[in-house]
Each structure stands twice: as C-alpha cells, then as structure tokens.
C-alpha cells in the first residue's frame, strides 16, 4: 500500500481525470492524497479521498472577470501563468512541500509549477502527466494556436513544414513568462531549469499522457518514457445516474442535440444559449442544454416542450443517448464525447480547445465553428450537415470502439506501481 500525492490546478476538467486515477489507485489498495486548491475540498472529501489544500486558491467560479481573462484567445494562457500561477508560486511550493511529507510518490499536473521543484528538493519519485497533445508542442505534430485558428485552412504540407517554427516560437515566447520561476529557484539555491512549461514539467521517471491514442503520437521529440494511457473518465461530481427529469425527456422522443460548455466557459457565456435555442427552433428537433445554474434559471421561461434546460448532468451517461454533441472541446469533454460514438460540433474558445477541436475534425467526427460565428442559423446549418452526412456518425462509432478498448486508469496505475 502506497501513499500517492496527486497535485493539480484548474477547472473540473483538470480535476476529474485525477479523481478517476485516485479511484483506480484506491481499488488497488493505495492511499491517494489529492493536493489542490481548497475550493475542491468538499468534492474530494465527498469522493472519500484525503485532501491537502495547495495554492493557488483562485476559484474561477467566484470571479467571472477572471474566467473571461483566462479564456481570452490571445492572452488567456499568458494570464493563467503570469497572473495566477507564478504570483502564488512560493505559497504553492510551501503547501505542496507539506503535502508530500510521508508520501511514496507524486503525480503532477502541467500547471503544478511547484511540483518539479519539490521533487528536486525532496527526491520523491514522481510521474508527470499531460491532458492534451498540445502540451508536448511537437515539431512533428502541427498544432492549432488559439490566436490563429485560421491556419487550419492552410495545406497540410505547409502546416507540417512550419510546425518546427511554431513549436520554437511557442517555447521562446513562453520562456519569458517563466523568469519569476527561475528567480524563485535561485532563491532556493537551485540552478535554472529547462523550460518549465514544456521540457521542465516532465519527470525523468516518465510521463502519463491521459488521453486517447487516436490523437496520435508518440513523436521523436517527446520526452522519454511517455505512456499514452487513454482518457481517465470521471464525472461523479455531476451524479452517478441521470436525473428522472432527463430520463423522462429522453424517453419521450427522438435523441436530442446536447449542448454543453464544460466547466469554464459556462460561467461567462450568455448569448451562446440563446443561439442554441434559435438553432433548435430552426431545425425543429429536440435539445438538452447543460447551461449551469445561472443561465438555466434565465432560460426556463423561454423553452418549449422539445427543449430541456438543466444545470448539469454526467456526460458519460448522457452523451451516448444524444444525436450529436455541441461542446467547446476541453479535453475532458472531448474524450467523453469520443467515447460516446456521437458526431460533434466543436466550438472552441482558447487554450487547448482549438487544437483539440481541430484534431476531432481531422479524425472525421466533428465540424468546427468559431464562437464569434455562433449564430442560430449557422449552427442549424452545421448540425444539419453533421447529422445528414453518414460519414460523421460512422467514423464516430468506429473511434468509440477504439476508445472503449483503452484501459486508461489501469495503464496509469500499472505505470505508477512500476515506479513504486
């Protein structure tokens, strides 16, 4: 039996995979300790896990202005590092250092900037993780940068040829953001680290890529000892079953379109839901909107009998019963949608979302549109194409079979036990 500290930061999309991992570790007799911001304490304790509060403790659900800033396509990622993670680095280091006392190993999230420092100082064995392919920033794997989603229209040979330049430019720009981290290392008597966002976040013991192998890789410039495990799906925080209200609606007619904005964008989007209602009206079909508590209350008086608006629902149970899924392509929602075997309309905002969306399109299971172009008429047109062309559904079903064969939690646990 091992004590395994799992540290992460971000939205529920950055928490749920690690709760899935903790569940699998507990089933094998280990003791997971979830080290993350205090506002996740209740969720972690409700799941029956030990909890250690680790900075930064910036709860985006309480600060819509913060969500808008970090979801900005041009400056969102920079804001996450420069305005949230780096100013709290000393506190994050101190709290994580306390959390790993007596632990046998540590599992780290890409945003846990203090974790490599703690590992270096304590010598604790650790495995790093990534949640999406974009994180590797490979010169062999063209990416879709959030500020320049138009590049997806370029010929593939151009994208392949420019991929090394894009990767190098990304490293050079973000290295300037990391000077406060380098200064903090110096204050601890440590030498400068290699790029903390990219190479420096990866453990010399190995890295777990917690997403499906259908996204591709490994590539020659990835760090050594990468294991692509498959997604670790966990959505118990939204319920272990579908509510009676949702069950009644599903049983009352044809499979609906499911509209969701995940756990971050849902806090700031308003017009999105109005356009969803307009698109549903134009198509004459049925829809379920997972609109969050604020927007659900606002929309209730506007919906007809063919539309159900609810705060949230477990994606793993609802998505397989949809006709299609409209979502912003956070990697957690994306992986669950892939497992459902349903075609998708991708509406990505920022960070890894555009790249995840583009990969879905290249896999032949999705169409993609910009949030700026998200209007009822255009949405109805895209969904009609998605549902009428059988290729999307057939490819979605084929990939779902691949995803279903992956043993994400089991492979991750195997790798952790090999380390132990």
Question: Overview of this structure, please?
Answer:
This protein has 420 residues and is an alpha/beta fold. It has two domains: 3-234 and 406-419, Rossmann fold (3-Layer(aba) Sandwich), CATH 3.40.50; 236-405, Rossmann fold. 43% of the residues lie in helices and 12% in strands. Helix 2 links the parallel strand 2 (31-36) and strand 3. The radius of gyration is 21 Å and the shape is globular. The N and C termini lie close together (10 Å). The model has no long low-confidence stretch (mean pLDDT 92).
- What's the main sheet like? 7 strands, parallel
Tell me the helix content.
40-55%
In CATH, the topology of the largest domain is named Rossmann fold
Which range does the strand content fall in? 5-15%
CATH homologous superfamily heading of the largest domain: Glycogen Phosphorylase B
| Strands side by side in the biggest sheet | 3-2-1-4-5-6-7
- Calculate Rg over CA atoms: 21 Å
Can you tell me the number of structural domains? Answer: 2
Series of secondary-structure elements, N-terminal to C-terminal = EHEHEHHHEHEHHEEHEHEHEHEHEHEHHH
**CATH architecture grouping of the largest domain:** 3-Layer(aba) Sandwich
Specify the overall morphology: globular
């Amino acid at each position: 039996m091992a004590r395994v500290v799992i540290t992460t930061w971000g939205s529920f999309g950055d928490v749920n995979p690690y709760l899935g991992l903790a569940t699998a570790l507990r089933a094998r007799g280990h003791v997971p300790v979830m080290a993350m911001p205090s506002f996740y304490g209740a969720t972690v304790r409700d799941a029956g896990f030990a909890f250690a509060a680790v900075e930064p403790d910036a709860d985006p659900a309480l600060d819509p202005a913060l969500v808008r800033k970090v979801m900005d396509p041009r400056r969102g990622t920079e804001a996450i590092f420069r305005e949230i993670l780096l100013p709290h680095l000393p506190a994050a280091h101190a709290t994580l250092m306390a959390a790993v006392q007596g632990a046998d190993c540590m599992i780290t999230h890409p945003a846990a900037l203090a974790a490599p420092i703690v590992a270096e100082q304590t010598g604790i064995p650790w495995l790093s993780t990534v949640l999406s392919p974009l994180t590797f920033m490979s010169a062999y794997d063209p990416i879709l940068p959030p500020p320049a989603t138009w590049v997806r229209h370029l010929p593939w040979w151009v994208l392949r040829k420019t991929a090394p330049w894009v990767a190098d430019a990304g490293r050079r720009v973000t290295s300037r953001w990391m000077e406060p981290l380098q200064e903090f290392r110096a204050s601890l008597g440590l030498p400068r680290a290699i790029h903390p966002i990219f190479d420096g976040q990866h453990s010399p013991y190995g890295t777990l890529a917690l997403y499906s192998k259908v996204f591709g890789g490994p590539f020659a410039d990835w760090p050594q000892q990468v294991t692509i495990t498959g997604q670790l799906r966990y959505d118990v925080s939204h319920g272990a079953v579908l509510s009676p209200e949702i069950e009644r609606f599903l049983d009352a007619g044809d499979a609906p379109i499911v509209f969701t904005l995940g756990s971050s964008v849902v806090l700031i989007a308003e017009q999105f839901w109005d356009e969803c209602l307009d698109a549903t009206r134009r198509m004459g079909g049925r829809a379920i909107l997972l609109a969050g508590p604020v927007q659900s209350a606002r929309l209730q008086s506007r919906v007809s009998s063919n539309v159900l608006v609810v705060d949230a629902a477990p994606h793993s149970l609802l998505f397989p019963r949809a006709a299609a899924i409209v979502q912003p392509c956070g990697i957690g929602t994306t992986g669950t949608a892939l497992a459902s075997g349903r075609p998708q309309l991708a509406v990505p905002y920022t960070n890894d979302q555009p790249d995840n969306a583009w990969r879905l399109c290249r896999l032949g299971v999705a169409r993609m549109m910009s949030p700026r172009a998200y209007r009822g008429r255009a949405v109805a047109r895209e969904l009609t194409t998605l549902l009428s062309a059988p290729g999307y559904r057939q490819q979605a079903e084929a990939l779902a079979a691949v995803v279903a064969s992956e043993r994400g939690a089991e492979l991750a646990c195997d790798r952790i036990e090999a380390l132990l």
